[in-house]
Each structure stands twice: as structure tokens, then as C-alpha cells.
Amino acid sequence: MLTAMPPSLAPIPKAAPQITEVIADTLRAEILQGRLKSNLPLRQDELAERFGVSKIPVREALYQLKAEGLVTFFPNRGAVVAALSSAEVDEIYAMRIALETLALRRAIPHLTIANLAQAEALLAAIDQAQAIAQWGELNWEFHALLYQPANLPRLMEWVRILHINVARYLVIFLVGLEYQATSQREHRAMLEACRQGQIEIAVTLLEAHLQAAANKLVAFLEQRAA
Amino acid sequence: MLTAMPPSLAPIPKAAPQITEVIADTLRAEILQGRLKSNLPLRQDELAERFGVSKIPVREALYQLKAEGLVTFFPNRGAVVAALSSAEVDEIYAMRIALETLALRRAIPHLTIANLAQAEALLAAIDQAQAIAQWGELNWEFHALLYQPANLPRLMEWVRILHINVARYLVIFLVGLEYQATSQREHRAMLEACRQGQIEIAVTLLEAHLQAAANKLVAFLEQRAA
DNA sequence: TTGACAAAAATCGTATACGATATTATCATT
DNA sequence: AATGATAATATCGTATACGATTTTTGTCAA
Fold first, then answer.
1. Angle in degrees, CA B151, B202, B187, rounded to 5
2. Which residues are registered as beta bridge partners of A80?
3. Mean pLDDT over all residues of chain B?
4. Does the pTM exceed 0.85?
5. What 3-state class would DSSP assign to A216?
6. Other C-beta atoms within 10 Å of B216: how many?
7. Strand C contacts (CB < 7 A) among A residues 74-133?
8. Mutate to test the interface with A, among B102, B105, B106, B164 (most CBs of A within 10 A)
9. C-alpha distances out from residue A76 to A66, A128, A147, B16, Å
10. Under a CB-based contact definition with an 8 Å cutoff, are residues B146 and B192 in contact?
11. Where is B78: in which H helix or E strand?
């Protein structure tokens, strides 16, 4: 029979941990950490054996990562870890600026004292972070925290995807450079503007913050390409 | 053996028509035309039998549509055609405005005479369009044409996804209203600003154009919900 | 009649198996 | 020796089959 109702409508979207999700999360983390490098072929049999499952959940995980832009498919010829050109980095940062400034604009009026305190704590944690993987993670948490009160879940999900697409390249020049100090100065200036409710100033700072990262990354990639 | 090279790197991303794609395209079209209504359960066996294939390509097609926001999955309980709340419509249009104004801004300096002529022709075609499905299609082609010269493929793909998420609701109040005439006036004003290279004016018009549609749609959905 | 519990049916998620396509290796021919 | 055709191998894409979870149906007691 065809019931026209959704199966009891929503309050139980949680359930057993799907194998597909576990595989996708694992591969995503490895790509972000740079353990799986660009253009590396991802063979389905190989991954299936490694995870101790069949190819089907592996395929679905790979397609999920394709939707996130982390892997590229060649029909009948397999998948590889996606590579980013400098043009794509430019495009991704342009989109991040467009979407994240929107999020921040809508979030600031709803920021609570608790949010601001959490953000402050995250900045302190970033200052003391040791591993670069940790740095990237905390960095993203800080940004996400400021956007969260906007209550725009789809936008957040897409911004997260854009972020992870550039994150694995970002960590490259984070080590040994003074970029971290500059970034933290910008973070604190943004947070201060948020605290005072100065939307336009905060948005301008965020845009400059992202554009600076974009310029560094594009320059790095174009140098490496030559 | 593990070759570290991509399988002959790219020039052949075309191949046999994947069954998964065919199914996804068909279901997407049916959702857009309103033939598959919101919250309708999409059973895998049923679809597999209908298309004469097994469940696996059906599953992959459904997951692709999930990534596009057209279906919602409930683990171990199946998928349904996604429904949009007025809050989600507001969010989608906010994202469209952010991304499409970016695209237009970057596209205008690269617009050619040929582009402008094509756009003009599309407007004429819209004026004479009979079926509403055709109207929606042409409408999107007009917008896409203006953004194309920006050369931002990822952004275009995401804008397309946002568009199809609201398109199926748009057609509802397009019939029998004077919205079409208003929309065409706005289109022609935008096109004229593009022709004269007046970026800020064109962007402002586009934003107003999208916001007007958003307001109408949100009002419609909230009325229907009550 | 109503509620709770249990059995049955339906649907999903995954493993196994097989055919299709692409890539690599072999060999004949110029 | 180089090149083109052909066979062998590897990998992907899909069908079939089965176990797991969920929903529904049926039964019984209060």
C-alpha cells in the first residue's frame, strides 16, 4: 500500500551508525590531513578490503565525497582525490566571502554573551594549539561559532564544504610562518566588532581575513605549478 | 600495483550514459514538475521495478538528489521528497542573492555582444512561452546566461541546485498572475544595465528581483501552512 | 472497547557474484 | 626498432540474494 505520509515524520533521524558514513568520515579526514594526496587513485576493491566491507558502501562514501568536491570520478575508470587549481581556490574563496559575510551579518544581532565567551576561549585554545591538524579544526570552530546564531543550516553545511576543500592546502604553509599570528590578530579584531554589534566593520574584517588567506594560497599554488 | 598517476588524466570524462544519471535526471524532473509531491515516500524496490533495474543505481540516484536537497533520507526507513518550510525558502533566496550577485558582478566585464543578443532572444521566447514548465526552464536559462561569463563553474552548479529547490514551488503561483509581466520588466532593466556595464545598478536590480520572488513565495507558503 | 505485547510483513542496508569497460602486456608486421 | 592489432588482466558497474531494522497486523488481557 502507498501511504502518502512520511514514515512517522522526522523525530527519529538518528539511528545505527551507517557504515557509509564511517567510511566517508575516515576518508575525508585522511584527505584533509594530507595523508591521501591529490590525484591518488581510490580503488574500490582496495578500500573495501581495508575497511572489511563490500564495495557498495565504499562507492556510496566516494560519491558523497564527490558531492563535497573532495574526489573526482571518471566513469568506468575510478575515482581520484580531487586536485585544486589556483583558479578553483579563487572561486572557492569568493564563494566563502559571499556566504560567510551573509552568515555573520545575520548572526551578529543574535550573538549571546555565552557565544562571545566561547569564541574567546577558542581563540585562547588556538594560541596554545600544538598540532597543525588541531589548529585547522579549532580555526573552523571559531568561524562556525560566530555564524551559528544566524540559524541558516544549509548555508552552514555548504560553508563547511567550502572550508574543507581549501583546508588541506592551508595547513601546508601554516607551519613555520607568522601567518598564525596575523590570523589571530584578525580574529580578535572581528570578535571585538561582533561584541560591539558593529556589523559592517565585522563583515569588512571577515572579508579581508578571507581574502588574505586566498591571496597567500593562490600565490603558493601558482608558484608550485611553475 | 599502485600507480600514483590519475588514469590518463582527464581528457575522457565522457562515456556510456550511466544508469544512475538517467534515474536521477528523471526523478529530478518529476519533482520539479510537481508530479512527485513533497513528503511522498520514494521506495527503492518500487523505483527499481519501475526503471527495470536493481536497487543499487536507484540508491545512488536518491543519494545524489539528497545532495541536491530534493530528497530527505531517514536511516533504515527510506527516503521522501523533501519539503520546504518558509524559513528554508528564505535561506535559499538569501544564498541565491549572495552567490548570484557575485556571479553577475564578475560576469558583466566579460559579457559579449553575442551574450547580450542571446539574452534578448531568451526574453522574447519567455514572452511567448506557453507551458509553465517551459517558462521556468527559459527563465533559468536567462539567468544562467548572464552569469556564465564569470567562469565560476562550482558557483554555477550550486546556484543551479538552489534554483531547482525553489523552482517547483515557483510554478505554483506563476499561472494566472501578473507576476510574469513584472518579472520580465525586471529582466529587461537588468539586461539594459548589463549592456551599459553598470555593475552596481545591475546587481541592485538582481537583488530586488530575487527578493521580490522570495517575499511572494514565503507569503504563499505561510498562508498555506495556516 | 482499549491498550499492550507478539508475530508477521515490508523495507532498507550490505555481501556476494557476474558482466562490461578500460588498461596493460604480448606478439606479429612493416 | 617502432607500430598496430590482439589477448590477458584489472577495475568498475550492476544484478541477485540475504540479514537487519522497522512498521504493521493480529491476538489477548484488562
1. 95
2. A41, A72
3. 89
4. yes
5. helix
6. 16
7. 76-77
8. B102
9. 15, 47, 41, 9
10. no
11. strand B78-81
DSSP 8-state class, residue A196: T
**Coil, helix or strand at residue A135:** helix
For residue B43, give the chain A residue with the closest CA: A2
- Whether B149 has its CB under 8 Å from any CB of chain A: the answer is no
Query: H or E stretch including B73?
Result: strand B71-74
> Do B63 and A59 make contact, defined as CB atoms within 8 angstroms?
no
Cα-based distances in Å from B83 to A74, A139, B70, B80: 33, 34, 8, 9
User: Chain A contacts of B153, Cβ < 8 Å?
Assistant: 91
The per-residue pLDDT for A14 is: 40
The closest of B91, B145, B93, B92 to B118, measured between CA atoms, is B145
Residue B140's pLDDT band, with cuts at 50, 70 and 90, is very high
> B75 and A102: CB-CB below 8 Å?
no
Sorted by sequence, the CB contacts under 8 Å of residue A25 that are 6+ apart come out as none
Q: Which three cell numbers stand for residue A40?
A: 591518488
Distance CA(A60)–CA(A36), nearest Å, equals 18
Sign for the CA dihedral angle at B12, B17, B22, B23 comes to negative
CA distances from residue A179 to A174, A188, A217, B130 in whole angstroms, order as listed: 6, 14, 11, 58
* B30 vs A14, higher pLDDT: B30
Is A153 in Cβ contact with B13 (below 8 Å)?
no
Chain A 18..37 CB hits on strand C (< 7 A)? 18-20
